[in-house]
Amino acid sequence: MRTIIIAANWKMNKSIEEAHRFALEVHESCKDKEIPGLVPIIAPAYPYLGLLADVAKNCVLEIAAQDVSAHLEGAFTGEVSAAMLASMDIKYAIVGHSERRQYHHESNELIREKLAALQYYGLTPILCIGESLNERDEGNTYKVLGTQLEGCLRGINIHAPQDLIIAYEPVWAIGTGRTATGEQAQEAHAYVRAWLAKNYSKKLAKSISIIYGGSVTPANLGALLAMPDIDGGLIGGASLVFENYRQMIYIAMQKLGVVHD
Predict the structure, then answer these.
(1) Cβ atoms within 10 A of the Cβ of 89, count?
(2) Which are the catalytic amino acids?
């Protein structure tokens, strides 16, 4: 079975006190547990990465960055490099989120450069892809996903599942309260897995975790995880509440058959 990823993308939310308290609660609930097959991740705002990384030591919890610079080093004011993240023992970073594409005009080429920088320093990218409502209504979902995959992964070597996580996030379902049905999400995930099989290998395609993002909550996560090609969630608003996040970890543990009292 592929690794299930329960990733909280906090975006620009929480004070440092709130973030610290949340991470401590997760640590307390998970510190004595091994959860094979499951990786819980929190992606806080950049100023909190070091503090939360310290809390997550000796715990199953992992900390991710919400973005990374395409540059390895140099005179790029305000940027944070993959090398800096690696020096903090951060193992994951989100790239290509629709909000970065929309508000910061990030192209597939720029995202590809960020992927390359992360891989150079041994971090696992969480690559976000997804179509807008107009693109879906026009029947172009697969065309959009294929273009994003081709543009972002051109020249990127992937040898093992830890080299990449893909997050399918239909733009029309992010922060809107609308969620793709399990069947709609499954169709997109199956397309992505088939694309990986064609462009890399069937073995690799079967092993890479493809997670769903777009108004994921404890109420719909179970149905999403029941689909054969959905391996977790990249969760926004619902992940800001500890009890929601705890419940989603528990749902994933049930899926794995690893439930701790």
Answers:
(1) 14
(2) 97, 169
